[in-house]
Specification:
The protein is mainly β. It has strands at residues 19-25, 31-34, 46-53, 56-61, 73-79, 85-90, 93-98, 101-102, 108-113, 116-121, 124-125, 142-145, 148-154, 157-158, 166-169, 173-179, 182-187. It contains no helices and 17 strands.
C-alpha cells in the first residue's frame, strides 16, 4: 500500500445534508431508510479509519459519539443526484421485458417515458445472492412517466431499493411561451432531467 487514497469523496465530511442512506440487516433482513445522513454513515463521527486487511476496515469513534449498534449491518450511502436510468424506454410502442435478471441499475432503474404500452413479466430485480450487494438501485426500480396505453407488471420480484419499487405518474408541463407555430414548456419535474431538450418545442 502506498498510503495515498485511490478514491475520495469530499462531500462526506463537508456537512452536506443532501444524502440518502439505508441500512440492511443481514441478521433479520430488515431495510431502513433515512434522510438524516449522520445516522446512516458509519464513519461520520470517526476519529480514525484504518485498513486492517484486504476488504476490512476498522473505524474508531470519538468519545461520546453515536456509533453503529448492530453487527451485520450493511450501509448504503448515496447522494440525491440521479444522473441516468439503468434502462431507458422512450417513444416506443408495446415494449416487453420478460424473464430478465436485473442485479443492479445505476441511478434510476427502468424509466419509460412518452411510450405506448409496457409489459414486464418475470423480471427479477434483486441483487445476486452470491454478490456483496444488498440493494438493486438507488431510486425507483420502475418509473413510468407520461406514457399512454396499458402497463402490465406480472410475476416480478422486487428486491431492496432506495425508493419506490413501482412509480407510475404523469408529467406536469406549463406552457411558458407561445410563438407562432412553437410552444415552449416548463417541465415541472426535477427528476426527469434526461428528457431531451428538443421536447420543449
Amino acid at each position: 500500500m502506498t498510503g495515498t487514497p485511490y478514491w475520495t469523496y469530499d462531500d462526506l465530511r463537508s456537512g452536506r445534508t443532501s444524502f440518502i442512506g439505508q441500512t440492511y440487516s443481514v441478521a433479520n433482513g430488515s431495510n431502513t431508510r433515512s434522510s438524516a445522513w449522520n445516522t446512516v454513515i458509519p464513519f461520520r463521527q470517526a476519529s480514525d479509519v484504518a485498513i486492517t486487511s484486504p476488504g476490512h476496515v476498522r473505524v474508531t469513534y470519538a468519545a461520546g459519539s453515536t456509533t453503529p449498534a448492530e453487527l451485520g449491518t450493511s450501509y448504503q450511502i448515496r447522494t440525491t443526484t440521479r444522473d441516468t436510468p439503468g434502462f431507458f424506454i422512450w417513444q416506443s410502442k408495446n415494449t416487453t421485458l420478460s424473464n430478465v435478471d436485473v442485479g443492479y441499475l445505476h441511478g434510476f432503474g427502468l424509466v419509460s417515458q412518452f411510450s405506448d404500452g409496457l409489459t414486464l413479466s418475470g423480471v427479477n430485480f434483486r441483487a445476486p445472492a452470491d454478490s456483496w450487494r444488498t440493494t438493486v438501485a438507488f431510486a425507483d426500480l420502475v418509473q413510468v412517466s407520461g406514457n399512454k396505453g396499458k402497463v402490465t407488471i406480472e410475476n416480478c420480484n422486487f428486491g431492496y431499493v432506495h425508493d419506490d419499487p413501482i412509480n407510475i405518474h404523469g408529467t406536469y408541463w406549463v406552457m411558458a411561451a407561445k410563438k407562432r407555430q412553437y410552444r415552449d414548456f416548463l417541465i415541472q419535474a426535477q427528476r426527469n432531467c434526461w428528457i431531451p431538450a428538443v421536447l420543449s418545442r
